[in-house]
Structure to design on (157 residues):
């Protein structure tokens, strides 16, 4: 039996009916068409489905949609404003931190939450902060540099 929930996604309020066993990642992708959030392992191990829920990075595959009732969600689609890339997205492009791109949305959302909590992390803090997101294409060096570059740019503002 479906349950009606309200949630704010990328600043827009949605009222939708969901099944009790539906995950947040499935609702974001299948019901709202926000396919930037990737589905990987579906067990919370890879981090490709990371979104920001009430300011905290979470694996959307581990969150039931009913748990998002009344809450605020930010996905990769919500970072860019008016067709202008967010500084993190821009840094990932400029630093060559994108290879196949599958982990990129989860990595960027995790980095966004990290930088909100710690605007000027050192390399060790960045590596620890992104440790929940697996990337099979890189050695993480360019990803770490992109996050550090964003930190330095926004820290000067």
């Amino acid at each position: 039996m479906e349950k009606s929930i309200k949630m704010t996604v990328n600043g827009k309020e949605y009222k939708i009916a969901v099944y009790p066993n539906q995950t947040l990642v499935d609702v974001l992708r299948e019901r709202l068409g926000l396919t930037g959030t990737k589905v990987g392992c579906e067990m919370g191990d890879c981090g490709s489905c990371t979104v920001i829920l009430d300011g905290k990075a979470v694996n959307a595959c581990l969150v039931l949609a009913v748990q998002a009732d009344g809450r605020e969600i930010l996905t990769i689609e919500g970072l860019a404003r008016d067709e202008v890339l967010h500084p993190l997205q821009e840094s990932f492009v400029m630093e060559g931190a994108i290879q196949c791109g599958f982990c990129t949305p989860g990595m960027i959302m995790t980095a966004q939450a990290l930088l909100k909590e710690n605007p000027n992390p050192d390399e060790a803090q960045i590596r620890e902060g992104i440790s929940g997101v697996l990337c099979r294409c890189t050695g993480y060096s360019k990803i770490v540099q992109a996050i550090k570059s964003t930190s330095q740019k926004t820290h000067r503002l």
Remarks:
- Strands lie at 3-9, 12-18, 50-53, 56-59, 72-74.
- The chain has two domains: 3-78, 87-156.
- Residues 3-78 form a domain with the Ubiquitin-like (UB roll) fold (CATH 3.10.20.30).
- Residues 120 and 152 are 7 Å apart (CA to CA).
